[in-house]
Amino acid sequence: MSTSVTSVTSPSSTTPPVTDRPDPEATAPPGSPWRSWLAVIGLALGVFSFVTTETLPIGLLPSIAEGTKVSLGSAGFLVTGFAVLAAVTAAPLTALTGRVDRKWLLVGLMVLYVAGNFMAAAVSGYALLLTARLIVALAHGVFWSIAVSIAVRLVPERHAVRATSVVLGGISLASVAGTPLGTAVGQSAGWHAAFVCVGFLGFLVLAASLLFMPALPAKGSGSLAALRHVLRHRALRVAVGVTALIMSGHFLAFTYVAPFLEEVTGVRPSLVGALLLVFGAAGLAGNFAAGAVVGRALRASIIGCTGLLAVVMGVMYAGGASGPLVITMLVCWGVLYAALPVALQTWVMRLVPEESEAASSLYVAAFNGAIGVGSFIGGLIIDSNGPRLAMIVAGAFALAAMLTTAVFGRAGGEAPRRAGS
């Protein structure tokens, strides 16, 4: 991300002062405009690929467990173990690769992605399958940490939020198409075939990186000292904390939305998949709507989305027996949730522009850690009180995220300003 992207920060912030001198990287991104946007689309396909791969085993757990002769719980570790390793390694690996040209780092990550998925497609034992998943997880954390920062370096500064929304649109697209299609392939042709398909997706991203990505010299310090630097930034710690709160709340509820729909709302199991597609489609709309709003009102967007999510969770809890009301809330939930990664990632990138990738790696760690924490808490609630209570607890997490942003999130929560503007 261009070093000229600055924000209003606290006095303790280490962000360099704004000057009237234009940053050449901000005014002249590398490469021609059409090649740059093709590279951004390639990064979006990479996000789509990684999210699809991360969640692919969820719909195939019974067949994977049977094929590898392990329990469903052990098969489930193919998802939770993936998320935990990505969360733990994102920050240190991103810092240690900070001096590598971003184009070639991206190429290396996609090689790992392809190798891990093809290995998963070729093995039949659980230990080797888990090893293949963990290889992809190592690439996952670093890819997420650098994808948006690469995208905003490829386009003029005025299009930074738009590029962010395009890249992160891969998340919603994976919910709408990636995971359902991967599950369908695995159920019809076997789970090995599903891993072959996501492996070929990686080849497309690899080709886009080689063809359209210009050389992008590293901007970070390339050491673990970068992590110490960003961890001293108070406003960044707030942003990471808000990310952990709202994503824990989301996954606390969403991981168990299927039993909620079946047991509380009375939806037939055969219709749950269709409702999840509606959720994902609403997310696509929310993702690109965020691109038009976040750049002008970042802090207000985060406060509004988290506050409205708290309301949605409360309505789901109180009116969960009403099918039309729950479907309406699912659409609202999809729109609001999908807007949040765009807003949160933009917030993090603005706070420490001189070490944007190290800052993003902390965001990635919080996001992936929240998947595990939220799902774990949700599981405890489901086992003891059923799925309805999970909604109000998720609402409490969303409310806490809103209040934290409102009280402590002013630094870096506004649109960047230049001197004299």
From TrEMBL:
Keywords: Cell membrane, Membrane, Transmembrane, Transmembrane helix. Pfam families: MFS_1 (PF07690). InterPro entries: MFS, MFS_dom, MFS_Efflux_Transporters, MFS_trans_sf. The keyword Cell membrane applies. Residues 1-31 are annotated as: Disordered. Residues 39-413 form the Major facilitator superfamily (MFS) profile domain. It is a multi-pass membrane protein. It is found in: Cell membrane. This is MFS transporter.
